[in-house]
Amino acid sequence: MKSQSKNKAPLRVGVVGMGGIGNTHASAHKQDPLSKLVAVCDVVKDKATAAAKTHGVKAYTSLKEMLAHEDLDIVDVTTGGYENGSWHFEPTMEALAAGKHVLCEKPLSNDIGEAREMVREAEKRKLYLGCNLNHYFTPTAERARKYMADGQVGELIYLLFKVGFNGGEETYGFNPSPRFNQPYAHMKAFLTHPFSVMRHFCGDITHVQSFSSRPGFRKNKGDLLVSVNSVHVTFANGTIGYLLSQRGDAVWGLGGWWSCEVAGSKGSFCIENCIERLTYWPAPKPGQSFGLGQGPTPEILDTGIKDFGVTFPRRIHAFLEDVTNGVPRDHLRSSARDALATLEYIWAVIESYEQGGVLVRPHSLPPMHGDPKTERI
Ligand SMILES: NC(=O)c1ccc[n+]([C@@H]2O[C@H](COP(=O)([O-])OP(=O)(O)OC[C@H]3O[C@@H](n4cnc5c(N)ncnc54)[C@H](O)[C@@H]3O)[C@@H](O)[C@H]2O)c1
After folding, report:
1. Residues 192 and 97 placed together within one structural domain of the fold
2. In this structure, what CATH number is given to the domain that contains residue 197?
3. Whose alpha carbon is nearest atom 39 of ligand 1?
4. Atom 3 in ligand 1: which residue has the minimum CA distance?
5. Backbone angles phi, psi at 310, to 5 degrees
């Protein structure tokens, strides 16, 4: 992690949307020296009051009122909605209009037009808009990036990502809520995570082809969710990649909740179970010879951490650091533009699926202009 700025007052934060995730964010702000949680907000009064009591801060039932009464630096948007993202747009735009920096939960929105507008609005107002792409704020991803930076991976050859919520037909339960019983709810709300990790390691994706499906036990219940996604991609740097995602339809198999293997000309690594384990296999050196199935001894980082919840305070701290340090807006880690990239890929996945697996080029991202006040060229 980057070092924090000294001698600056903690950033004053209000959290909007006090479900499970809002409370997780509020707890992270409470324990972080860079922030001061001052208020929470939920349109459901009981939720606002309960969260306010838990965190010892003031409760509001409207963001408008919270903005009017509290002197905030950051609004943290943790609302949900249809496809787990339709309620992000309104509070985010309202907070930006009030001149606040915003950290928004993923996906930026369940609507690509809204997501593009959110990115435009933050850029226009010169405010930080970050997204909680928390899956790569881990010791495993940090170590993996160091292997890459140190030249121990070399030219990138391929990336394989497999994510599966652990499950099967005996534990499957039909969820009629419009949060999940929509064909693309899983893709829109969840694929943002694997795509964010894939892009973190291999850069922008230029081509997408997908085949998707749902198992018989879902179909029999009239469940609309297209829950199994097989996605083939190419990256701008020439690397090829593959993503397999399923939402609790099967037992997860090797690699735990998710695994990401990145193979290079000088070495390969694989992250298993998100934050738990990283293995690095160096490529054989000239003069070394191994039998089939054998190779140089791999290096293993076993963090012992299985709790994915640890990623929240880590990612939130990075956002607080970036805002505290006043980094150039286009250097913001896990920015709204990064989150928009993942949504553009998701929209390409949906288009490819709807057209029987055709090759789709994701919509291009808005250009980055930089800021003459903070950039030295
Ligand atoms: N990053 C991650 O790892 C991760 C994990 C799980 C969920 N999420 C995301 O977190 C978000 C929240 O998930 P959750 O399970 O806590 O949802 P939730 O539905 O339990 O909670 C959302 C809360 O927001 C409130 N709300 C909605 N609109 C509001 C508004 N305009 N003003 C004030 N309050 C409002 C609702 O009343 C509700 O209490 C979702 O977008 C989800 O996709 C992220």
Report:
1. no
2. 3.30.360.10
3. 19
4. 134
5. -60, -25
The pLDDT value recorded for residue 376 is 62
Low-confidence ranges of the chain (pLDDT < 50): 1-3
* The pLDDT of residue 2: 43
Same domain, 41 and 164: no
Separation between Cα atoms, residue 182 and residue 160, nearest integer Å: 27
Task: Write the DSSP assignment of 279-332 as a string of letters.
Answer: EEEEPPPTT----TT--SPPEEEE-----GGGHHHHHHHHHHHHHHHT--GGG-
The first and second tokens of residue 217, run together, are 């036990």
Q: What is the pLDDT of residue 368?
A: 86
Domain extent at residue 107: 11-132+312-335
Ligand 1 site, residue 79, Cβ cutoff 6 A: yes
**Which residue has the CA at smallest separation from atom 30 of ligand 1?**
43
pLDDT at 358: 98
Per-residue pLDDT, 377:
56
Residue 5 confidence (pLDDT) = 54
pLDDT value, residue 3: 46
Given this model, what pLDDT does residue 370 score?
80
Ligand 1 centroid to 102 CA: how many Å?
15
| 133 Cα–ligand 1 center, Å | 15
Q: Report which ligand 1 atom has the smallest distance to the Cα of 135.
A: 3
Is residue 376 in a domain? no
Ligand 1, atom 25: nearest CA belongs to which residue?
17
- The answer to whether position 362 is within a domain reads no
What's the CA-to-centroid distance between 297 and ligand 1, angstroms?
44
Cα 101 off chain centre by: 18
Give start and end residues of each alpha helix (H) in the chain.
Answer: 20-31, 45-55, 63-69, 89-97, 112-125, 139-149, 185-190, 192-202, 216-220, 311-325, 336-354
- What was the pLDDT predicted at 6? 56
pLDDT score recorded for residue 372 = 80
